[in-house]
Design goal:
The structure is a homodimer of 276-residue chains. With 276 residues, the first copy, chain A, is of the alpha/beta class. Chain A contains nine helices and 15 strands. In chain A, 48% of the residues are buried. The model of chain A has no long low-confidence stretch (mean pLDDT 93).
């Protein structure tokens, strides 16, 4: 636990990108660090945290599978979204120069996002459970021939040096986080809604489901498919669209959609982020 | 290199699930083990291997991002598909009992698929670059207090013991692999076609694209979205459907689709697998 403000849980150590996303959304928070994304859902369900902040999709790596699976199971609502530009830093203990580095520690997704740079430098990669956690580990072990990849905030928190900033292969590296909680967000007039549905197993089923949105000119902002886990090659569709569940048009659309699907779950409506 | 037959590249060591998929599709092969999925594409493009076998989607974990990204970049064709039931085995050196185990090594996806079992046993997980590679490493280091998660074939190849078979959390655990090569597969009458497209950035764009398939009663067997990496929150759609590119109906559909998309790439037509 750390800091004042509302209790917000996220996966990773202090300085994790989810921590930065939580600060961006809430301002000062009481930060509750968790080991896994599943743990974030659990502590919010148990009311130990009022909100959770979880990564949902990254503009390079795509969807975060664990979050998708937990959204399907949970009774929590999606109460907000945060978009964050990810800037990966090369971080090392005092005294370590770039030429001393032999190994780089970080979360597998961060290592993947810096693939080209790491390959060019000829370093060995060591997957770690968390970006900021790898900085913490470097500090505690005081290793001098290795570096971590994490946020600038992680370097600040643990007092290590940033040797290089922005080492990701693609600059267009954004992560969209969801804010989850027990309460619904109120309508602002510029909202988004997230749903999950499973189509009937007939040809053209997805097309017919999307017809309900197209006819009403409801703009889909995301469509992602995930296996149902029950039957091989059968998919759940995760869809985000513009509008609030209390809008007549949206309510009407979801009523029509219900008849065409074997499963429909509304995750929540929330204010659309003003960021890119 | 190992064995006779056609030269087939795959990611991982001998005994990897991709190796088993290659054997299932081709029978005896000259096995060319590769470090990464990108390497598989490269050796086939360089004609060092005639074919490559790469994982495409898993019924629990979803799409294999690296394969999707490489399919977008490559000039190779999809020439076949293999569906494989994944059975994870707990594998250890001779003399190691289940009660001796403290750590489990495997590919992160295999560790994820055995999450519940590993948690119940209270073992530490250590992510490794490959399932079969973790078996090879156990053999070479002769560690007695750790196990690997991999295929039965991997245990056989490296001469280790299978302590338990089928430790995955969900029995419905299938992986679909694609066979990639320079040549197109010939029409069999029971074929599938894989394509990638990007819709125009207008409301209802995906719906209008799917209309071309629905109108012709062409059955979609998969639809997956992946970020374009160029513009945040813009998606490429990977679609598989029944039919061959030389069918009039399919050719007609793709002509119509071309007008509605900003990008369209046909990966290939190939015989549909007869397995589930």
């Amino acid at each position: 636990m750390s800091g004042g403000g509302v209790a917000v849980a996220f996966q990773g150590e202090l300085g994790a990108y989810s921590h930065i996303a939580a600060l961006k959304f809430f301002g000062p928070i009481n930060a509750l660090t968790q080991k896994t994304i599943a743990d974030v859902f659990e502590v919010v369900e148990a009311s130990e945290a009022k909100y959770g902040v979880v990564p949902f999709e990254n503009s390079l790596e795509g969807s975060v599978n664990e979050t998708y699976d937990m959204l399907l199971e949970t009774s929590l609502h999606v109460a907000g979204e945060v978009k964050l530009r990810i800037v990966h830093c090369l971080i090392a203990n005092a005294g370590t120069k770039i030429s001393d580095i032999k190994r780089v520690y970080s979360h597998p997704q961060a290592l993947a996002q810096c693939r080209t740079y790491i390959k060019a430098m000829g370093w060995e990669t060591v997957p770690y459970y968390d970006t900021a956690g790898s900085v913490k580990m470097l500090k505690e072990s005081n290793v001098k021939d290795a570096a971590a990849i994490a946020s600038e905030l992680a370097a600040e928190i643990y007092g290590l040096n940033v040797l290089r900033r922005g080492i990701e292969d693609f600059a267009v590296n954004y992560t969209r986080f969801l804010v989850i909680g027990k309460e619904q967000a109120t309508r602002t007039g510029k909202d988004k809604t997230s749903i999950i549905f499973t189509t009937k197993h007939i040809p053209g089923a997805l097309y017919m489901a999307l017809e309900d949105f197209a006819r009403r000119e409801i703009n889909l902002t995301m469509l992602v498919s995930r296996p149902t886990k029950k039957t091989p090659w059968e998919y759940n569709f995760y869809v985000d669209f513009e509008g609030h569940i209390s809008d007549d048009l949206v309510r009407d659309c979801l009523m029509a959609l219900k008849d065409k699907t074997v499963f429909l779950k509304v995750l929540g409506s929330y204010p659309a982020s003003v960021d890119v």
